[in-house]
# Entry
Amino acid sequence: MSTTAPRPDSAHYDDENLNYADYWTSRTYEHQAEVMAVRRLLRGHAFEHAADIGGGYGRLSVVLADYARQVTLADPSRQQLSLAASVLAGHPQISTRVMSASDLDFADGSVDLAVMVRVLHHLPEPARELTELHRILRPGGYALIEVASVAHALSRVRYLLRRQPVPLAPVDIRTSQARHEGGIPFVNHHPATVITQLEAAGLRLERTLSVSNLRHPLVIRMLPRPVLLGVERVCQEPLAPALFGPSIFLLLRK
# Structure
């Protein structure tokens, strides 16, 4: 891909017609599956300072607060951080700062846990952001990264039917109109490629989870939420080696 791909900015998430918190009102299963994954990966850990990078309105910051003495919600969108005020009420250990993942205003080695969930899908070429991630982490610090996967099970079937290999390069999933209008990047990555990029940035993979494994509109309509989440709980670890789900969660260490 071109090395001159545009960097996403805050404009999309500062749009007065978009409320990212509203986006999640009908995605309870996905949210709870992601919370389940975060808690599973962080269980038994305690951190001094966690950074929720690109964390929007703080959806997962409140979860990180159970594992860190201090949490910084960092996002380039002032609108998102304004929405965070009510979400973070009652969590004095969580602060907010306006910053971009490509230029993190943290000192070298000042963060024990860096989290990027639902961020890589805006980054066709994430090398700069991953370098920043490595820079701010202390030696031995952890990174928790979510990958919107082009290699999930249903996608692999589709490529198989087309007699095409699953791409290792990022796949632009925007509509033709959004691409024509130069909208914010939306891509799916191959987890194997991202893991290679993370390792090149100096981060070593420790654990992998397959997440939102039942994320299909028909399945979500058919099954009660307790059943969805029960199956999700059972499947996240055993399905990870197969990269089954549409979201792959990675725990890495510097």
